[in-house]
Amino acid sequence: MKLTQHFSDFLDQTVNLNADRLNLLDQSVTAIKDFIRGSDWGPRIHRFTPQGSWAHKTIIKPVNGREFDADLLVMIAPYEDWEPKDYINELYRTFRASGVYKDKVRRYSHCVTIEYARERRIDVAPCIIVPGDDVNLVCNRNTNAFEPSRPEAYTMWIANRNGWTGQNGQKKATRLIKYLRDIKTKFTCDSILLTTLLGIHIFETDRDGDDFADAPTALRSVITRLDDTLQQYPSKPEVPNPVLRAEVFSDGWDETKYRNFREQIHHYRGWIDDAYLEPDRDASISKWRNVFGDQFAKDVVLTEAKSVTGRAIEKIRHETGTAVGLANDMVGLLVQFGARAIPAGLNLLPYVQLPTWRTQDPPSLIVRVTARLHAERGGAEIRPITDLTPLPKHRYVKFDVRNAMGGPLGNDYFVKWRVTNTDDEAANVGCLRGDFYKPDVGHIRWEKLEYRGLHFVEAFVIRKRDRLGVGKSEPFYVVID
Predict the structure, then answer these.
(1) What is the pTM of this model?
(2) Domain spanning 11-149 has what CATH number?
(3) Is the pLDDT of residue 322 over 70?
């Protein structure tokens, strides 16, 4: 499913750089402009021009509390007999002489950078306007060379493609894929290269189509087109600047990085197709969360986790035709009605992660989970337990997985354990889980009993030689009183 409202919320709340940070950025940039104009730096200033993701409006909120950066070009006339390095060095000297900026300024190959307490960075780069030429020059301090550039033309190139999509489809898709890159960390691709790769797959004919009708459709369209192209190039292609062909953005890649990028885009294209085409709402949310992580549809997750008791009550009412004697929480319902109280599709809750490996259908190996109660992890066993047995908090359960005959699996397989919590207590402390975990030793998984409610554990068996999922247990339900 497209889940357009969830995508809108996800972009607004998680992906897009928030308004407060943008306001601080604008204030800092204004102050920098005023400072440079009033300084003795030297060159005549024509104008200031934003560059990069800030200019292209594809800047995103940094993940994991990292700082964000913005690029500001100082468009200037050539100055006397300065060499390329002088433009950077003299700008650095000017900032260092300021009481406001002296402890914030750093110097790099093409710019000086103002750092704001690990919150944001503003790269200030001189860019020389050559009279009678539409190509500008940027300064490389390390090589003491001028390098051709057309930053304003590139920004216009991006703006045109965004206009062709309508509804800011290019911006939204680019932000989403940049977020995917940053949250997964499975491939590396500089933002300018990634933005270009996506941009060259947007065409003027898109004005008249539906391929960018909304954010999820735009995402699917552009990653599908990109993947189709990449699959035609087993080796690294040349990706030039579309407005300055002599500048090649893909030079920063080696063959290993390119092949990994190609493989990961193909991989995520499959996940996105699967989530987009999934007709069941909860399953689609789960699949989109597999792509973008647990910030996607996070409000729905809390609602669904807390609704388990209500769904169980409705199920019992439907089956019995009466509400007489119903308990008012999930534990009470399970004590009174046993397995009949378990709502259908519990293991399809939208925060339950899906396997990322290939699986047999049907599986060739029948497996089941066994469980034993312990006073403490690794301590003496209290007793074997069956699912739906109410258990006290703060004890430990040792889970194991067995074949159909009750024997061990052997060394040809490894196990992934999926552990999922439900109900109010776990939801209120943000511990719903639904993730996959490695065994603690051998195929065994230890879990502590912490939150009142109904929870479940599943074992997924994967064959080592080809990493194929060949078995999956039924959910083992754990009731904590």
Answers:
(1) 0.87
(2) 3.30.460.10
(3) no
